[in-house]
C-alpha cells in the first residue's frame, strides 16, 4: 500500500512512491510539463506533472486547477537542491477533491489592509505559515523550559476586578451590574500561585485598551507570566536570561526552514561571543541617551525610539534595571538603597526591537503594599485578597511577563507584531 505522508516527511521517502493530501497554491505550465506549487500545512513544495507520466485525463484535469484546489496526489519524492524545501514530487496521479475559482490572494503585492481583511485566507500563505510554526515552537519551548525548571502552569482568570498595570488601559465590562475588566495581566493571580506552589507560570490572552497605533501594540496579546516565591530580582533576571536563550536556541535548531522563508538571518539571533546579557541601570540608560544628544529627561519613560537606540548598542537582549517609581505599577518593591526606584527591569531585544519583557521583585510587606495601593488611587477593597498574601506567610518573590508577540516580532524580524498572532486585534481591527 502506498503510504500517506506529509510534505514535511518527504525527505524520509526519497525515491519512494507516496500519497499526500495537498492544496495547490499556484501553477506554471509549459506544454508537456506542469509545475504545481503545493502546501499541506507542514511545508510547501513543488509537484511536477509530466504529460508522459500520467493519463491524458489527469493531465487535462491538472490543466484546469485553480489556486486553493484541494486534492490527493500520488507520486515519487526526489531531491531538488534548487528549491527552498529541497525536495519535490513527480506526480503520477491526481484525485481532485475541490477546484475553486477566484481565490483573492495571488502573487501580486497586496496592501496590508487587504491582507488583514483576508486574514482567514492569508494564514495559508508562506509567510504567515512560517511565523505561526515559529510561534508554535516558541510556545512548546517555553512550556518545556518551565517544566525543566520546576514550574507548574497556573491559569489566571480573564474577567477580573483588579487593574494591576494602571486604570487607564482597561476594557470595561458590565458584569451583571457590577464593573469588571478584561485581564491586563495575570500577575496578581500568579502571585497567589507562587505562594501555593512555589514556582508557576500563566499563559493567556491579555487586553490593553491602548490607543497606541504603533508597530508593537495590540489590544489583545498573549503573555507568559512566571512568578517565583523565595526569589529576589537578581535571580529572576537569571531565569529570564536562561528562558530567552533556551527558546531562541530551540527555534534556531528546529525552524531553519521557517527562518529561511522569512529571510531571517539566524546569525543575527546568535550573539557573536559567549557571555551574559548586559544589565544596565535606568540611570545608565538615561545617560546613554543624553550622551548621544537625545532629548531625554530623568524620570521619563522610554519611548519606542529611545528603546530602539539603547537596544541597537548590543548584540543580545539587555536588561534596563531600577526605573523611577513614578513610571511603574504599585506592586513593585522599592530599592532599599534608593526608595526613588523599584527593583524592576525590562528586557529590550536587539536590532531596535525594544521591550519584550517587564518584571520586578514584588513588595512583600503588608503595610508598605497597602500604602502603595492607596497612593496608586486604587480601591483597597478590590485588593483585600491580594493583601492577604502578605498577611499570611509572605516571602520575597519576583516575576516577569514576556509579551509573546513582541518576542516573536524580534525573532521573525517583523515590521509590526500584528503578524505574530493569528487574528490581530488593534484599535481599528476586530475582523476577521
Ligand atoms: O510591562 P508590562 O505591562 O508588565 C506586566 O504586565 C507585568 N504584570 C508582568 C509581570 O511582571 N508579570 O507587560 C509585559 C510585557 C511587555 O514587556 C511587552 O512585551 C508586552 O507585555 N506588552 C504588549 N505586547 C503587545 N501589545 C501591547 N499593547 C503590550 N503591552 C505590553
Short description:
This protein has 432 residues and is of the alpha+beta class. It is built from twelve helices and 19 strands. The protein has helices spanning 56-63, 112-117, 119-122, 126-148, 187-197, 233-254, 256-262, 282-291, 304-311, 366-375, 384-391, 404-411, and strands at residues 3-4, 17-30, 33-39, 44-50, 70-79, 87-98, 152-153, 159-160, 172-175, 178-182, 199-207, 220-229, 279-281, 318-321, 334-335, 338-342, 344-349, 354-361, 397-403.
Task: Break the fold down into its secondary structure elements and pairings.
Layout: E1 3-4, E2 17-30, E3 33-39, E4 44-50, H1 56-63, E5 70-79, E6 87-98, H2 112-117, H3 119-122, H4 126-148, E7 152-153, E8 159-160, E9 172-175, E10 178-182, H5 187-197, E11 199-207, E12 220-229, H6 233-254, H7 256-262, E13 279-281, H8 282-291, H9 304-311, E14 318-321, E15 334-335, E16 338-342, E17 344-349, E18 354-361, H10 366-375, H11 384-391, E19 397-403, H12 404-411
Helix pairs in contact: 4-6, 4-7
The structure holds 4-amino-1,4-dioxobutan-2-aminium adenosine-5'-monophosphate (4AD).
4-amino-1,4-dioxobutan-2-aminium adenosine-5'-monophosphate (4AD) is lined by residues 164-165, 185, 187, 208, 210, 217-218, 221, 223, 225, 355-359, 399-401, 403, 405-406.
Subcellular location: Cytoplasm
Enzyme class: ligase
Domain Aminoacyl-transfer RNA synthetases class-II family profile: 134-422
Number of helices: 12
Percent in helix: 25-40%
What is the mean pLDDT?
96
- Overall CATH class of the largest domain: Alpha Beta
Structural class: alpha+beta
Gross morphology: elongated
Q: What is the strand content? A: 25-35%
Bound heterogens, unique: 4-amino-1,4-dioxobutan-2-aminium adenosine-5'-monophosphate
Largest beta sheet, briefly? 8 strands, mixed
CATH fold-level topology of the largest domain: BirA Bifunctional Protein, domain 2
CATH architecture of the largest domain: 2-Layer Sandwich
Distance between the termini: 42 Å
Radius of gyration in whole Å, from Cα?
Answer: 26 Å
List unreliable stretches of 5+ residues.
none
* CATH homolog superfamily of the largest domain: Bira Bifunctional Protein, Domain 2
Subunit structure: Homodimer.
Protein name: Asparagine--tRNA ligase
Organism: Lactobacillus rodentium
Domain Aminoacyl-transfer RNA synthetases class-II family profile: 134-422
